[in-house]
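Shape is hard to put into words, and the shape of a protein is harder than most. The fold becomes a row of whole numbers, each drawn from a learned catalogue of backbone shapes. The outcome of that step, for a single protein, is printed below.
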Amino acid sequence: MLKINNHQYALAAVLSLIAILYSEAQEGKDYIFQTSTIGALMQGDYNGILTFGELKKHGDFGLGTFNDLDGEMVGLDGIFYQVNSDGEVSTVPDSALTPFAAVTFFETDQTLTLSEPLECKELEGYLEKLFPTKNIFYAIKVEGSFDSLKARSVPRQKRPYPPLAEVVKRESIFEFNGINGTMVGFRLPEYLGSINATGFHFHFISEGKDSGGHVLDCKLNNVSVEIDQISDIRISLPDTGDFYRAELSKTGKSKLENADAGEKSEE
């Protein structure tokens, strides 16, 4: 007959508790954390309110911008990068501030490989057909080879801050050919239009971590796509006069696309 002593009981109990706590911790990470709203950013509220040290407590993957709208942010594998308007890339110190960011602890639910050339819009259409519903949130990582990729970054602003639609008229455009790297982004439903950019929104960081930006267009060559399905979002709103005074309305994808369209018309 098998005998179990008190030490074995105690060890089993400890291991069981660890498993439960680990499971709960993992479940507790399955959300998007966002600071401020896209509406406030569109209105010109570029005042940094949250440190990246605090942001890291809520995610290791995501996108956003910096105090004074100083460039584009890419978060990948727990490291946050800043792509400034000169195209230079640097790692972000914990003390840096963000006025707007969305992050999550990326946990892959589905992986697929695409080995034939696809435009960015074709990729989005392909993914839309895979999603079980358009009513939840998706974090998306696209890693591999790109035949071409067009990205932007925005210059640092000074008060009084102009709206984002004016800023992008003076943005920097970067065009890459035959580049390896990762697109980091989200697909969010239309009902979040006043909260975040709806539809697909990607930022890019090169394999060498020396170039990137907000993705305007791309052509994939050979990439892997990882998808994280998320059903929870948590929003931290600024406790500032600028945010209180902002006249917020439905902005989201439509006005973000209008900003991109304004950039194209200036070319």
Q: What stands out?
A: The chain has seven helices and 15 strands. The two ends are 82 Å apart (CA to CA). The mean pLDDT is 89.
